Amino acid sequence: MALLPLYAKALLRNPWALAPAGLLPILALAFQGRGEAVAVVSLFASLSLLLPPLVLALGLPLLGAREDWAFWAGMPQHPARLYLWGVLGVGLGLSLPTLGGLALSAGLLGLSAWGALLLVLSGLGLLWLWVALSGWVGAGLEPPRALGIGLLLWGLLVLAYDPLVVGLAVALQAYPLEGFLLAAVLLNPVELLRVGLLYALEAPVLVGPTGYLLREFLGYSGGLLPVGVGLLAIALGFWGAAWRFGRRDR
What we know:
The protein is mainly α and 250 residues long. The chain is built from twelve helices and no strands.
């Protein structure tokens, strides 16, 4: 338990950890006057581009320090449990400036209570998705390799996801790809969060291929599916982190 505040303080000593508190309100200014739904979804999309590399770059060097692993191996508690407290500390340290930035953004945008709540919850949910993923990749790899794997996953889940889904659907439209594409949708909690936001805010914008697949094959028109998938992904990330760290030869 003592490792949680220790890692949170260690992370906050890095000035870059405070970037969300200053950057998010600046981004929010670009979306003023565009309607609440568009502003919230646009800010979430910007956050999904900027936050994951920050989480990976700040968290993995702390979580991958070999001298800490050697110290934990000599502790009476299970090393994997200590590692998880470290991951939680990284998440807590990043949550504070992110929460501050989201709250300031909601104020600058003049959001309603519902819009502000959705912005804060989706932003923190996105943060903890990548904290859990950082813990998972960092548990079994040295920081440089873990950072490379993490950035690759960010590229696949955020940058290349829609082009890949649309490209496959168009190129192989003569084949029954619905099951494969639906599985790809359900395995991407970031995209599910975006679609869930669109439905929750009744946004006057398209939901893209993800929304189409959910609507056509699961009858989704709003609800807690993105929340459930997101929580499951976070839980699996922490479980995977503990499992990998417990099996690692330290």
